[in-house]
Amino acid sequence: MYTNIFDTHSHYLDRAFDEDREALLTSMPSLGVTRILLAGCDPEDSAGCLHLAEQFDYVWASAGVHPGCIDDLAPDWLETIRRLAESKKIRAIGEIGLDYHYDGYDAEKQKTVFIAQLELAAALDLPVILHVRDAMGDAMEILRKYRPRGVMHCYSGSAETAKELIAMGMYISFTGVLTFKNARRALEALEVIPMDRLMLETDCPYMAPVPHRSKRCDSSMIAYTAEKAAEIKGMDPQALIDQCTENGKTLFRIA
């Protein structure tokens, strides 16, 4: 069993965990998971993540508005995120970004909400957790201008884009997608990412790695992602886990 695992992106407020959330989180240290970060998706979810994080010494949270959650935002949504971020348990603004995957998206509104949160993160000196799906061109244009400190979560871009993100000072994080049969693009990107810029995550309850694909994911399953990443990097899985954990601690300023 591996130890010192930091799951840098999770969604334990998801209804998939309603029946055993507290017991599952309580069990994580015994499974080698020593740190977990909950990713907020909208003001209400972010508040819930903060409340949950406050119940566990080894759990932290982020606060932000996901690009898929921009409809029906209250006029004071940004102030709500700012207020939540005053807590020491909130370690990032996120997850934020652009998502053009589904028909009917409003690109301009997404950009407005994204930029407002990048500016908030800069003002609060907090890193950002970026979600970008089928919108890398527009996202990179914005990132080149604002140059935030943060991580591109669940990376799905090219190796060339990964190099540019690294040059900006960003971290890049991978989920169980690395273990999928169609993971060639992600594996190519992984190859060019320096070890001091790599992070691991589950995005649970989603993205369960092989051999648990299509099942509910939890933080203990990050071990499979670590093993695949270590294979590509030609190193011991525990050594890779340790480095990724140090990277996460550095970015999120967690001891």
What does this entry show, briefly?
This protein has 255 residues and is α/β, with parallel strands linked by helices. Helix content is 40%, strand content 17%.
SSE topology sketch:
Elements: E1 5-10, H1 21-27, E2 33-38, H2 43-53, E3 59-63, H3 77-84, E4 90-99, H4 107-124, E5 128-133, H5 136-146, E6 150-152, H6 159-168, E7 171-174, H7 184-192, E8 198-200, H8 222-233, H9 237-252
Parallel strand pairs: 1-2, 2-3, 3-4, 4-5, 5-6, 6-7, 7-8
Written overview of the protein:
It is built from 9 helices and 8 strands. With 255 residues, it is of the alpha/beta class. Strands 1-2-3-4-5-6-7-8 form an 8-stranded parallel β-sheet. α3 (77-84) links the parallel β3 (59-63) and β4. The model has no long low-confidence stretch (mean pLDDT 98).
